[in-house]
Amino acid sequence: MSELDWQFAHSYRTLPPRFYASAVCAGFPNPHVLVFNTPLAHELGLLADGADFDPQTHADVLCGNRFPAQAHAIAQAYAGHQFGHFAVLGDGRATLIGEQRTPNGTLADVQLKGNGRTPYSRRGDGKAALAPMLREYLISEAMHALGIPTTRSLAVVRTGERVYRPHWPDGAVLVRTAQSHIRVGTFQFAALGGEVSDVRALADYTLARHFPDLTPEAQASPYCALLHAVVARQARLTALWQWAGFVHGVMNTDNSAISGETLDYGPCAFLDNYHPDTVFSSIDHHGRYRYANQAPMAQWNMARLAETLLPLLDADEHRALAQAYAAVNGFMPAFEQHYRTKMAQRLGFADNEQAHWHLVECLLHLMMRHRADYTNTFARLTLAQSGNRNTRLDGTDALFAADDFAAWHQAWQQALQGCPPDTVAERMRTANPAVIPRNAHVETALAAAEQGDMQPFHDLLAVLQQPFRHGDETCRVYQHVPAQDEPYRTFCGT
Ligand SMILES: Nc1ncnc2c1ncn2[C@@H]1O[C@H](COP(=O)(O)OP(=O)(O)OP(=O)(O)O)[C@@H](O)[C@H]1O
Prior knowledge:
Elements: E1 8-9, E2 20-22, E3 32-36, H1 38-43, H2 59-63, E4 74-76, E5 79-82, E6 85-88, E7 94-101, E8 107-113, H3 130-146, E9 152-162, E10 170-178, H4 184-192, H5 196-210, H6 222-244, E11 246-247, E12 269-270, H7 294-313, H8 317-329, H9 331-346, H10 354-369, H11 374-385, H12 397-401, H13 403-416, H14 421-431, H15 439-450, H16 455-464, H17 473-479
Antiparallel strand pairs: 1-7, 2-4, 3-9, 5-6, 7-8, 8-10, 9-10, 11-12
């Protein structure tokens, strides 16, 4: 039976000691591995291809009861603006056990989430409940399959103890991997002590780890280049969220990853019917992180990052500010470019010229007016364009029967004239997912898992791992849109 081949680096520990604290092993009574991501283990170099592996024999390591011999477990310090209010935070329920050297030469953080208290836990228990950890596994893997940069999920381990939450649910640990867990909030933490040398140390570390082409050795203005590079990644990420109809729900600066990966799957969810004001988080009373506000909020987070870098940008305050403004102001044009291109592809266009974008805008407006389902509308158009004209999908009937939609459809088909139909259909099939992790289906799978039945979870996961299989019968079950009482707001726990 194979072992997991941990090849750890501990580069984060080269930062000044105030950036982290040592973490200790957990003592869970009866850990049981519920789900293990074998393909990801291969990608990370943890398992050889074809290896005979039983994750159960690694339950103690995967839940944090025992650290691998090569581990130097730490909790990372960070700060963050949470719903606009600044707080000093840190991993209160997470432990970085090491940075795995992957076969392609990069480092990937291996972090346990929910494995108990750390020096940053404040009054929290450091634990996590089963359903939210399985939810993070499911949605992060769905995001990955959709081509959206994200932290990944290696395993979920039920710990064998109950945690103090409503209904005393089972406790669990998620094993999460990431290009890194450096956050905008990590830079805010670095700047907090007032030592420019701390910000410089973190910036240099970030450059070396994520942007090796931009290091001080390679660039005249490495810190300005770093800011531009992070802005570019965040702009692309946010555009992909908008394209997919993903509402992150808690875009605090401590959840904004410098790597440009989606981080923290607490109150997130995907749109059912299209409406720009959709909010899923029950604590987001003013809609700060509503669907339509995600790009401005991501840009706001970039401004917070820029503030921390000001002393490194230029000795002259005005010149530093000018550089910061220029970088942060680059967010919206980059976002628009990515978003419009992806949305034009949804309608089969290769480019996002104004006339094509106008068609997208008009369709979104019609979808809002007719309360049409976002994903299913594009999936139905895709099937129709592929010659499958009679396929009806939930949440699209009112739209497709409307006169204003017929006029739009005619204009769209006219715009497509001259484009090879097969190319258009193929472009649409790859730009429009057939399935997304709809809240209702996710909740059903999690409820079954809480009762000890993991089959619905695995069935849903299998479909989400191949989201572009239009017309597939298995997909159809998950294209069903259950009736909603609340039109635009859904509540989901974290
Ligand atoms: N049960 C808990 N015990 C201790 N600290 C906690 C607990 N739950 C959350 N925290 C801490 O509260 C802060 C905000 O929590 P949030 O839910 O945004 O993060 P998270 O989901 O725990 O972690 P991440 O952002 O890494 O996914 C973080 O510093 C987190 O570590």
